Amino acid sequence: QVPLVESGGGLVQPGGSLRLSCAASRNIFGLNNMGWYRQTPGKERELVAEISSGGSTNYADSGKARFTISRDNARNTVYLQMNSLKPEDTAVYYCSADVTRTSHYSGPPFKVWGQGTQVTVSS
């Protein structure tokens, strides 16, 4: 079972907006930090933004003032609103979460990942 499922990627023109969503699977009940990363061919995966269970946020410089991360704890879902998109934002975007409790586990957090969603910014 895929632990995290992303949606909302696609093709957008420069200056446009996209909203990514990521929902945890139904057997995951406890989550600490959730976040969004991105990766382009030949480069390491890099942090875009992260949010704690209490709502504290952290952004990479590349997304500050343009991206907003939020979460719905009741739905175990995290969002990334991306505005004023640039061609250099083109990447596969991955959702991550630090899991503390599932239907079969309760203990120190471990990180899980989604399968990724492609974001392409091009005219």
Question: Would you mind describing this structure in some detail?
Answer:
The chain is mainly beta and 123 residues long. The strands form 2 sheets. Strands 2, 4, 5, 6, 9, 10 and 11 form a 7-stranded mixed beta sheet that branches. The chain has a 4-stranded antiparallel beta sheet with strand order 1-3-8-7, with no helix packed on it. The model has no long low-confidence stretch (mean pLDDT 96). It is built from no helices and 11 strands. A hairpin with a 6-residue loop joins strand 4 and strand 5. It has strands spanning 4-7, 10-12, 18-24, 28-39, 46-51, 57-59, 67-72, 77-82, 91-102, 106-113, 117-121. The radius of gyration is 14 Å and the shape is elongated.
The coarse overall form would be elongated
User: How many runs of DSSP E, i.e. beta strands?
Assistant: 11
Relative helix content:
under 10%
Write the element-wise H/E pattern from the N-terminal end onward. EEEEEEEEEEE
Rg (C-alpha, Å): 14 Å
**Which percent range describes the beta-strand content?**
over 45%
* Low-confidence runs of at least 5 consecutive residues: none
Helix segment count? 0
Give the rounded overall mean pLDDT: 96
Helix/strand class: mainly beta
> For the terminal residues, how far apart are their CA atoms?
36 Å
Largest sheet: 7 strands, mixed
